[in-house]
Amino acid sequence: MQKTLVAIPARLKATRLPDKPLADIGGVPMIVHVWRRAMAAKLGRVIVATDSAEIAAVVRAAGGEAIMTRDTHTTGSDRIHEALTAIDPAGDVDYVVNLQGDLPTLDPALVTACLAPLATAQVDIATLAAIIRDPSERLNPNVVKVIGTPVDLATGKLADGDGHQARLRALYFTRATAPTGDGPLFHHIGIYAYRRAALERFVAMSPTPLERRERLEQLRALEHGMRIDAMVVDTVPLGVDTPEDLEKARKMLG
User: Fold this and answer.
1) What is the pLDDT of residue 245?
2) What's the Cα-to-Cα distance from 248 to each of 67, 107, 131, 197, rounded to whole Å?
3) CA distance 85 to 92
4) Can you give the residue ranges of every domain in the chain?
5) For domain 1-104, is the CATH number 3.30.2160.10?
6) 107-236 maps to which CATH number?
7) Which residues in the chain come in under a pLDDT of 50?
8) What is the pLDDT of residues 50-72, one digit of tens each?
9) Per-residue pLDDT at 8
């Protein structure tokens, strides 16, 4: 994965936690924490794609690279695609990791793990999942579940098993409690790795019916027949969406 770009989309328009990327955690803005963890993964070039001069300023002050984008983007995928096109018009980058800017406690190893399914040529997009251990998360619509079938780690082909394998081929994403019956449920972790061609195809698509119904952007790819595989990992990084989440992050980073 020598030609990999890690892109962190960031904006200031969060409703539940205004100015979220600039939130102070131990004297450091949250977006800088995320940038540092992306750098620690050592996968390649790391950029922050933003429409905010304030975000760009704090990233650059920390030694990072910020790329200014339009303020009309509705998704992070659109924003990182604009940044990619601006910095790499020759098409040298082969893989793009879309890393959310609200994961200040992220284990850098998860960024690396996300890329692994792209070693299978048939996989367009890769992501992460974790077995749900907390019973309350099974019923929580804010916890997105990935429904998938196990695949062999070496070949990417369907495998026998009960779902505890380390990789799934995604069949659906939902806010509902699914699938029914005995067996594990999987918490989807919203980090994505795209083949460049897959990202370009994805952003050119119009929103789809199930995407709008579930309010889950990744369903657009499945509805258009793209393949998404998810690596199963042991931990779910803390996503900071509320003031309560921010306090948790501050305690964790001490």
Assistant:
1) 93
2) 29, 16, 22, 38
3) 11
4) 1-104, 107-236
5) no
6) 3.90.550.10
7) 1, 163
8) 999 999 999 999 999 999 999 99
9) 98
pLDDT for 162 equals 54
Give the phi and the psi of residue 10 in degrees, each rounded to 5.
Answer: -150, 140
Q: Are 112 and 118 in contact (CB under 8 A)?
A: no
Which of 168, 195, 204 shows the shortest CA–CA distance to 184? 168
- With b for 16 or more beta-carbon neighbours within 10 A and e for fewer, the 17-54 pattern comes to beebbbbebeebbbbbbbbbbbbebebbebbbbbbbee
Q: How far is CA 235 from CA 105, 129, 132, 133, 170, in A?
A: 11, 9, 10, 10, 19
Per-residue pLDDT at 2: 60
Tokens 């328009």 locate to 13
Return the number of other C-beta atoms located less than 10 Å from residue 219's C-beta: 22
State yes or no: cis peptide before 18, omega within 30 of 0: no
